[in-house]
Amino acid sequence: MPVARRPFARKLRIHALLLPFLIFALFPFYHMTLTSLKQDRELYDRHGVPLIIRQAPTLEHYAKLLWDTEFLTWTKNSLLVTFIATGVSLVIGTIAAYALARLKFFAVASIGTGIFVTYLVPTSLLFLPLAQVVNWIGLADSKWALVVTYPTFLVPFCTWLLMGYFRTVPKEVEECAMVDGATRIQALWRIVLPIAVPGLVCAALFAFTLSWNEFIYALTFTSSSDQITASVGVTSELIRGDIYFWGSLMAGAVLGSVPIVVLYVFFLDYYVSGLTAGAVK
Amino acid sequence: MAIGTLPVTATARGSLRTRVRELLDREAILGPLFITPALILILLLVAYPFCMALYFALSNAFIGRPSTFIGIRNFVRLWDSDAFRQTFQNSFVFTASAVAIKVVLGISLALLLNQQLWFKRVIRGAVLLPWVIPTALSTLGWWWMFNSLYSVVNWTGISLGLMSPPGPNWLGQRYYAMTAVVLVNVWRGLPFFAITILAGLVSIPQELYEAAEADGAGALARFWYVTLPMLKGVLAIVVLFSTIFTFSDFNIVYILTHGGPINATHLFATLARQVGIDSGRIGEGAAISLYLFPLLALIVFAQLRYVRNQAN
């Protein structure tokens, strides 16, 4: 009996050790959500308990956020920028990755290295000169500036990730099709891409997440209320002067994360595999 | 396979079309064609701005004014400024402490996740969550948690008897503020470490542990002589990646402290923004940004060497 029990006790101990990590990871989200649902009276009661809701929860902060601010416009901008930037980057990244992984041509190795290096250049190094470029091409204070600039970090990322996936597709499958008379582009379109679908999904998810979460470019290149993205709107427009509306602020933080959370719940395994592939491959 | 359904239209409808098709089938033509869009993008929006940053750093560029070349005067002036020297120090303190904590906690968490668990998927999902949520928004949550009047961190600490009321003013005192930004960076970066190290753990052959156990190695010895050496590669990559992204961090400091109190938490990126955008001194701002470059170049160099060694 004690022999059979020991694995159980061990398992219990492991879970007990994991608990602090889980609380650390999840508590901020719990507290954000809780704050967004509390009535102001309870929120600003210095003798209240911040860990639970005692009085009736309320949606007034959400209502205020949706009807009294431009939150819906910011979300729409975020969606527009994210979808277009992700789509464009995915196409450019896919063909570049295919060429770098499969084709032999002039300077292919050094171009591959160049793209990897670009992938490592942080946005905070380039935002100042890029702001000038954005001015010159007439996109100052426009969400289209973000559509144009986000691919600079999305394309290297997608290319790098997809190169790894394309290398795992056996060359023979493709050559077989070409022997049967298909051109290389047909073979890519009908044979290689369908096999690489998991990689494409992964790249699309990460590109979507990266551009939805992008902050420094959005903060620098846009400022008008009808051009900014959700992150910038919530952090700059809801904080005015010294009076903070914590309820609405937290409601904005929660709602601004919803699209990513939805994707995340449905595609968790892709996130896990992409995270390791992006770094290690 | 779908090979059988491919339309074998070898009889082309026009000689031009055939010629284009033939050209596109040649790797020396299709290859460059496929990478051209990516290259144009990188040249125009990464390489060119980078060169501009170099020029700006050597000029007295100011928003909306023509600039002139002033040599390294920006860099000299930066070294005379207390704010910059403080930022320089902060960046290294911030990066070193955050990365070190993430390594230790990341290995611990990965070892735990590698055990038999009841809700493996759910637990992994929960652990990874801080990494996927927009940092700017989740940091707002932390900002509220560190609020000077209503801090839930202090409330909990006081309730548990760990802090004497009213508890630290997290974002208003220099060392506490630095602790807070490091803490949030660890919170956000830990999933990347844990999940990547976990992938490394899974790939260690079980036989090695069995052999070590047969030789009488205890749990600690097995960790030290089997696990750690086998994780060396993954750890190197994770640390290099994380160093880049921690060193160039912007979001957390910008939202939590705006670099304050009195520059105690400014990083290169946040100071560059304050000087380059808020004060309009683009030249000086670009010079600050460029301080990111040497460490970055070093890391990229190390990464490339590592990738090459892997390939051989």
Q: Provide the CATH topology of chain A.
A: MetI-like fold
User: Segments of chain B where pLDDT lies below 50 for 5+ residues?
Assistant: 1-12
Which oligomeric state applies? heterodimer
Number of domains of chain B: 1
Number of strands of chain A: 2
Tell me which CATH architecture of chain A applies here. Answer: Orthogonal Bundle
Secondary structure tally, helices of chain B: 14
Outline type of chain A: globular
Q: Structural class of the helix and strand makeup of chain A?
A: mainly alpha
Low-confidence stretches of chain A: none
Q: Return the average pLDDT of chain A rounded to an integer.
A: 88
* Mean residue pLDDT of chain B: 87
CATH-level-4 superfamily name of chain B: MetI-like
Helical content of chain B (DSSP H or I, runs of 4+)? over 70%
State the CATH topology of chain B.
MetI-like fold
What's the level 1 CATH class of chain A?
A: Mainly Alpha
Biggest β-sheet of chain A: count, sense, barrel? 2 strands, antiparallel
Output the radius of gyration of chain B: 26 Å
The biggest sheet of chain B, with number of strands, parallel, antiparallel or mixed sense and barrel status, is: none
Strand order of the largest sheet of chain A: 1-2
